[in-house]
Amino acid sequence: MLRAGALVALGGAAVPLAGCDLFDRGDDKPPPPDSLEPLAAESAALEGRYRAAIAAAPALADRLGAIADAHRAHAEELRKVIGRPAPSGSPAATPTAAAGDPDGLLAELRQAEQQGRENAAKACAAAPAERAALLGSIAAARATHLEALK
What we know:
Layout: H1 2-19, H2 37-56, H3 61-82, H4 102-126, H5 129-148
């Protein structure tokens, strides 16, 4: 009877030890990428493109500054939803249009914004309800950015 009691005591002690990861071998894999990662990265990249366009054509600062700020806010909010910080070392954007060509810069931004709006709308359509409102507002904001760039 004493042996049975000792085995029960040991068996009961083994379960909590295993539950505390005492025997964990470190095989934990990082969590899979969140489906919003590409949209967050795109928002940050769009902000970078606007900042680069402003640097290349300072006369556009009043027109483009608020849009750049909106893209930064979108990237930050998406990162909050994802629950992970942005990767470090994001590349700086440089416009391909000449600095003296504001029309060329605006055309590049319109093209990037159009692609961004399409991506946000697709993400919204595929998202669960708790994310759809945010993604819908980002898609709508990008549509208004297109209008502001005309």
